[in-house]
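Following up on my earlier thread - several people asked me to post the actual chain instead of describing it. Fair enough. Here it is, all 450 residues.
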Amino acid sequence: MDKERNEQDRLQTEGAEAAGPARAIGHLPAVLAWLGFLGFFSVLNETVFTVSLPDIANQFGIPPSTANWVTISFVITFGIGSAIYGRLADMYGVKWLLVIGLCIYSGGSLLGLFAPFSFPAVIAARFIQGAGASAVPAMIMVMIARYIGPEDRGKAFGIVGSMVAMGEGIGPVIGGVVADTIHWSFLFLLPVVTLVSIPFFLRVLPHEPSRKGKVDVKGALLLSAVMVMFTLYTTGYQWGYLAGSFLLLGMFAFYIRRVEQPFIEPSLFRKPRFVKGVLTGCILLGTAAGFISMVPYMMRDVHHLSTGLIGGGILFPGTMSVAFFGVVGGRLADRRGHLFVLSLGVFLITMSFLGTALFADQTPWLMTGALVLAFGGLSFVKTAISSSVAETLEEHEAGAGMGMLNLACFLSEGIGAAIVGGLLSNSLLDFPLLPTVVSKSVVKSPISAV
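Reply from S.P.:
Thanks for posting it. Predicted structure:
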């Protein structure tokens, strides 16, 4: 039986390679649906605990800066893991890495569920959750780049991207309902649902023989240190952490050029289209993330809205609109090309910025429309960048290349939000730039005169 099964796996692999990546896996609609399902739950945990942080701080008697590590600990291992799993996918394939990641994700969730009265245990559970959940976006990127043909790739990125954005947007809403009706610790139960997808992916994903290679542990540790130092900077805005992160990044760049089989192949940086795609995505996503991070401060300080109203009335419609824009953007990418979708996304983001600048002192509900445009443009940009970068990679580079794109985008969004936070905190923009926005002396706000 084992010999027969191995022979079937060998024939399946050879047939997939002969048919090409477009036919390497069947049941494309079902695959996209399950990928969207996993994408939704993988990022849901980034935001689902946000509204419960005050409750967690009160329960454990800790300051908000310490309670924020419930979110930070997940983000650190989520960002680092997305790059690590991408590299491992080039060596060991997708199937079992995805299964292992989902099991780690659920294991961390069960630890958090049964240890809600120990804050260190909660943080450990969040670290483990991030380490497992990071397999999902990494494997999704690799699967789409490796197994779905160019004619359907834009649609695939659009569908999955819309579900990911929906998970980010609906996370605070679900978190608030569960925390109010039961207890915040039950939020750890949600990721366990992802285990139902394992039988499907074990059945449809082809067997991939392992390739020779080794894991660059030192390179992974250096890259992890870069992520940790930068995250510490964003939590306290201490410039020493930022300088340390750049120093370590330089050491990492020096190291990968002089080691055999590095964690990130330097050859990727010799691909002009790949580098241009990653840099374009970093600039646009970082800018949009900084803008979005500013909106709650504006709504609170200028229009005096409550936190619940800002989340449910101002931010939520925009985040949910991403589901629509993601599907549309994917279809447009397949029909009109990536450049068209990217240009349309930049146009929507620009119109959102202009509308905010011109009508910042008007009714806050205009901001709801501006955020719909911003999130829509952001969805178009992500779809176009992901599809165009995937086309520049060979099959054996898909894991490392898409993992690097994930990591770069994660860093750029954090940098964008950190820069905006620093500008607001230091009141560096506290002067009128447009005649339509008037600074009022009675409003002591760092953004009252944007």
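The two ends are 70 Å apart (CA to CA). That should answer part of your original question.
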